[in-house]
């Protein structure tokens, strides 16, 4: 299969180590990976802020960059969700439909498309998993506590097979961190309080490293951790799955 690697703009600018870990991980899994050099933002920030019409240029460029690939894989549940669900604002040509259908978040791609849960990683730490809203309730990467469904989680399936990793149980396993993109700008006080609550849950349950599949949420939590000098580290799940400590 021919896979196009989609690296969201904030990861490209602020967390290049996540992009590198994602590429290395896919290559370890013997995937033929390509990186379209002309790729830019998927248009999510504009779309989420109500400027859908202004986001169409970014959406069309995304399709143009990724239309030739069998799959599009990215380390961001929220961006992939935007591609799959909100590219409905474009004319639904065969190319747009193909891109929407074949875009996958990294963990979902590994578990559901490649059929793998053990990829030979090792990471001897106590880890807390933050389940981001877009991935959980949008892409259905796991079951939600409010729906009372049978439990499943693509992220947990992968983490539970990492040698030495102890996945810690949280009191409120799938609560929002309060980031919400521009929500954290316009509703700063609420956003900060929600983020602090999520961090406290990890602290109360003995977590050493917080991970997740959406670095926008992790960025929010990491900012609060650094400001309050809390003894927790933040790592994207791609970094852990690529680790052989």
TrEMBL record:
Cross-referenced Pfam families: CCG
The protein's superkingdom reads: Bacteria
InterPro entries registered for this protein in UniProt: Cys_rich_dom
Residue ranges of every copy of the Cysteine-rich domain listed in the record? 3-83, 129-221
Q: Name one GO cellular component term.
A: cytosol
What stretches pass through the bilayer?
none
One annotated GO molecular function? oxidoreductase activity
The protein depicted here goes by the name: (Fe-S)-binding protein
């Amino acid at each position: 299969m021919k896979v196009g690697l989609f690296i969201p703009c904030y990861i490209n600018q602020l967390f290049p180590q996540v992009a590198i870990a994602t590429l290395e991980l896919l290559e370890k899994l013997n995937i033929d990976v390509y990186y379209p050099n002309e790729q830019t933002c998927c248009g999510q920030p504009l779309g989420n802020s109500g400027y859908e019409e202004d986001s169409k240029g970014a959406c069309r460029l995304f399709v143009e960059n990724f239309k030739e690939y069998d799959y599009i894989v990215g380390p961001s549940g929220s961006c992939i969700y935007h591609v799959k669900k909100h590219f409905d604002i474009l004319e639904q040509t065969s190319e747009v439909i193909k891109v929407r259908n074949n875009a996958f978040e990294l963990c979902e791609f590994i578990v559901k498309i490649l059929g793998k849960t053990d990829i030979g990683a090792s990471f001897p730490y106590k880890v807390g998993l933050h389940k981001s809203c877009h991935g959980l309730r949008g892409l259905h990467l796991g079951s939600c506590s409010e729906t009372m469904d049978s439990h499943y989680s693509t992220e947990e399936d992968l983490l539970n097979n990492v040698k030495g990793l102890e996945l810690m149980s949280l009191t409120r396993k799938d609560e929002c961190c309060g980031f919400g993109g521009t929500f954290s700008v316009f509703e700063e006080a609420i956003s900060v309080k929600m983020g602090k609550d999520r961090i406290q849950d990890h602290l109360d349950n003995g977590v050493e490293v917080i991970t997740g599949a959406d670095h926008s949420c992790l960025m929010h939590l990491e900012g609060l951790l650094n400001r309050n000098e809390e003894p927790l580290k933040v790592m994207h799940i791609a970094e852990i799955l690529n680790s052989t400590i």
